[in-house]
Amino acid sequence: MTADSAAGESNDNILLDEPTTADLRAKVTEAWRDFAGALATLLSSLGPGAHIDLTLDPTASGTGMAVYSVSIRLLPDKAVEALAVGNADLPEGYRMDRSAVADLVALGWSPPGVLPGSGDFFGLRSSQDKATQLATVVSRTLRDVYGAPHPAFLVYLVHDEEDEPIETAPLATARNEPNIGEVLDIDDLDDDGELSAALASAADEVVPLDERVRTVVATMSKTPVDQLQVDTDGDIGIRAGSAMVFVRVRDNPPLVDVFSPILTEVEPTEQLYVKLSELTNRMPIGRLYCAQDTVWASIPVFGRNFQPTHLMLAVQVMTGLADELDDRLHGEFGGKRFFGEGDKPTPAKQSAEDDHRTGMYL
Predict the structure, then answer these.
(1) Is the pLDDT score of 9 beyond 70?
(2) Residues with Cβ < 8 Å from 111, sequence gap 6 or more?
(3) Does residue 219 carry a pLDDT above 60?
(4) Per the CB 3.0–4.6 Å rule, which of 61, 198, 206, 273 could disulfide with 13?
């Protein structure tokens, strides 16, 4: 397991769908079984040239700068090729130890470079006739080796050789990134020619992803690109009332994280985990979770076949959500808001009426 065990326990807890859940482990196991079954069905139905990219959301899973991913490609004659991220693409502190590497090999993965064209990735060759076995291997890789606590922390994209999305049935509780665009009507955002030009520029695949992201954020905030607030980690900061929203660009695989530390120095309790689970279930996109003593909100946006409107929606939702939720959750669970000077952990009872003031965000 490469993900932090304490964070894993916290992430598991937010999956509670009711306070009286007796056997969370059984529920998580069932969720992974459903995911593997859905993946096997999908593998059996796709034609040559189709790709399936599965990524453990690094913000929601607490894996920092590490991005754990598996990519599956359908070849002619029902052949299937899969690649799994190796240590060469993981930062120090998140690389797999000998035991984890041995587990990958035991699952059937060939070490990096052994499968032709695999490069720094672990490789696996199979066939659509063995879709069930392959889906099981991929599921166990994501869960047991990469440390995904639940399929809900996976983001996936199914696309063809031209990177055009392919419509498919849901992969259980995993999140399909293209669905983010279904919530957005570009006419609601495009109110001037400047924004249209920025979108056209940001959609240009020739421009590096980080430049496209900065163009979108700068245009939305009506700020020159060179005046964006960027910290030492390269994260773009956007103030939203008493909250702070960050936009982070990752290279391999291409991914854009839109996230916010809603509360810090908060006491993790069962009531908090249940509340975060309830709120996440009502969110159109993204999720809320608690890692150690911080409550986070996260919306991932795929960088491959980057859609500026997807990032715009993620930023709009996150800025409104963070500014509203940090106040609500602070009032109920205490902790400190990003710009909440003098905040103290003084939980206050919340009324049922206030519990439904989440508007378009939840």
Answers:
(1) no
(2) 101, 105, 122
(3) yes
(4) 273
| 300-321: average pLDDT | 84
Q: Residue 325: is its pLDDT beyond 70? A: yes
* Residue type (1 letter), 174: A
CA angle 215, 216, 220 (to 5 degrees): 115
Distance CA 284, CA 320 (A): 13
- Least Cα distance to 305 among 257, 256, 236 occurs for 256
- Give the tokens for residue 72: 């599956």
User: Hunting for tokens 């996109």 — which residue is that?
Assistant: 285
Q: What is the pTM of this model?
A: 0.54
**More confident site: 83 or 344:** 83
Distances from the Cα of 160 to the Cα of 68, 73, 163, 171, 231, angstroms: 22, 9, 5, 17, 36
pLDDT in tens, 70-89: 999 999 999 999 999 999 98
